[in-house]
Structures are given as C-alpha cells and as structure tokens.
Amino acid sequence: MRYQISGKQLDVGEALQSHVKTELSEVVEKYMQRPTDATVTFSRDAHNFLCEATVHLSTGLTASAKGQATEIYAAFDSAREKMDKQLRRHKRRLKDHHRDRSEPVEFEAAGLYVLAAEEDDETGETANGAPMIVAEMETKVPTLSVGEAVMQMELSNVPLLVFRNEKHGGVNVVHRRDDGHVGWIDPRNSK
Q1: Closest by alpha carbon to 101, among 148, 37, 171, 63?
Q2: Has residue 50 got a pLDDT over 90?
Q3: Residue 92 and residue 14 in one domain
Q4: Which of 2, 120, 138, 151 could make an SS bond with 37 (beta carbons 3.0 to 4.6 A apart)?
Q5: Whether residue 59 sits in one domain with residue 14
Q6: Are residues 114 and 75 in the same domain?
Q7: CA distances (Å), 57 to each of 7, 31, 180, in order?
Q8: Distance CA 129, CA 108 (A)
Q9: Which HAMAP family has this protein been placed in (predicted)?
Q10: What confidence category does residue 127 fall into, taking pLDDT thresholds of 50, 70 and 90?
C-alpha cells in the first residue's frame, strides 16, 4: 500500500510516519485485503491537532475518517478508530449481501460546480440573474448498486453521492435525510 503522510504547516517526523503506517495497515488489512493507497494529513486548529485519513480500496470504494485531539498521536488514533469502525461495518454489509464484486468499480468523468454562497442583492442572484460559479472541477461518478452507493456514502462521510445505477445505467442519488435515514433518488421511477 502506498502512503502519503503530510502536515499542513507542521513537521511530521519519522516516528509518527512509522506509527501511522503500522497502525493504519493493521486496521485496513484486517478488513480489506486489497488497499491501494492511503493519504493522512495532519493540521492544527488552535490548541487541537486534526488528522484526516483517506484510504482507497481496489474495489473503487473510498473510506475517510477525521480525528481531533490535543496531541498529534491521539488525533491519529481517533481517526484510526473511526476508520476501523467504518471498515468493519462495510465488511459486515458485504457479508450480509452475499455479494463479491469481481471487477473494480467503473468511473465516469463529470463536471462539478461550486456556487457562491453570498448574495449580491435581495434576490440572491448576480447582475445577469444567475448564481455566480466559484469553481469548476472534474469529479468521477462511479457505477454501483444502490447498496454499494449507500456504503460508499457512509464510508466517505459525505451527505450525498451521485452514482450510475449498475442495473439500468441511469444516474441516481443517495443522500442522508434530516431524520437520519437514507434517501434514494431514481429519476426512472418517476415515470
């Protein structure tokens, strides 16, 4: 597994890098035998250390966790525990579904636009009547089953996930609702 361990405006020493590699590989290999790479980033927020860990699996799924503590090792341990819990749940769901993905998840390129949150006037629009686009990026849309999309959304700690449904090839969305349940939007079912 490839590791990228870095710090934002702080030095990450050899001892911490060795600790991260040992502990993270132990957690990931306990549940997933085919991790490809991991990115761990440390930063400071006032008196706390923050740790953001992301692990990419060969199936195309991505697990991410964040930890926060007053010491840098404790921040990593917090993120590691969250990662452990996510991967354990993911493996349990794979067993429950009795499904083994034989091929990696396919991805398609798609545009991603970030709109400005600030309003220019009372209507909330720019002079030409449209919201201002702050950033244009490219993202990847995976081809997954609905169950795998829900797992990916929970593993990535994101509020929603856009994916291509592997049953019919249409674009679908799963999202975390305000009541804590998961919603699924399938435009094909509205006809």
Answers
A1: 148
A2: yes
A3: yes
A4: 2
A5: yes
A6: no
A7: 23, 11, 26
A8: 31
A9: HPF
A10: low
